[in-house]
Amino acid sequence: MKKIAFILTLVLIATGCGKKSKVKPSNVTNSTETITINDGDVSKYNNSDDGLDGSSGGLKSIYFEFGRYDITSDMESRMTSNVDIAKSKSNIRLEGNCDEFGTDEYNYALGLKRANAVKQSLVSRGISASNITLVSLGESKPLCTQPTEQCYAKNRRVDFH
């Protein structure tokens, strides 16, 4: 019996090690359901025309709050502008992106949820679903790599191509 307990202890110790942790942005709080930025205003960090936008063809990226995939009201003008441009395109590729926080699996899933939310918004505004391709890039294609909240916010986006 002591041998089994010893072996189980070794297994638990071996499997619990080796996981890297990351520091979260200072203004992020955890709740049981979602993780959000305290001020909630995504346009504060990424609705500027600073040249950091991963979209092409005159389309503009849609930005999201930390850990979220719902399109906020401050992104509606960008969505409206994108719909007007997208109507003249034959195909649209939506690329979901995330900041560096969370596991690879979580970020790929979140990127896909973000891209799908944008797709559903486009479809509800008259864009054909068959013309839209979804891709999740997770955290693999950051626009900004500085360790600041403003930079992390620029990486929480869906790009249009």
Give the biggest beta sheet: 4 strands, mixed
CATH superfamily heading: OmpA-like domain
- What structural category arises from helix and sheet content? alpha+beta
Please indicate the percent range of residues in DSSP E strands (runs of 2 or more).
15-25%
Q: How far is it from the N-terminal to the C-terminal residue, by CA? A: 62 Å
Give me the strand/helix succession. HEEHEHEHEHE
Mean pLDDT metric: 78
Q: How helical, in percent, are the residues?
A: 25-40%
Radius of gyration: 19 Å
Across the major sheet, the strand order is 3-6-4-5
Stated plainly, the CATH topology is called 60s Ribosomal Protein L30, Chain: A
Can you count the beta strands?
Answer: 6
Task: Give a description of the structure.
- The protein contains 5 helices and 6 strands.
- The chain has 161 residues and is of the alpha+beta class.
- The protein has one domain (2-160): 2-Layer Sandwich (60s Ribosomal Protein L30, Chain: A).
- Helix 4 links the parallel strand 4 and strand 5 (132-138).
- The longest helix has 21 residues, at 104-124.
Concise description?
By secondary structure, this protein is of the alpha+beta class. It has helices at residues 2-16, 43-46, 76-86, 104-124, 149-154; strands at 28-30, 35-37, 62-63, 92-97, 132-138, 157-160. The chain is built from 5 helices and 6 strands, in the order αββαβαβαβαβ.
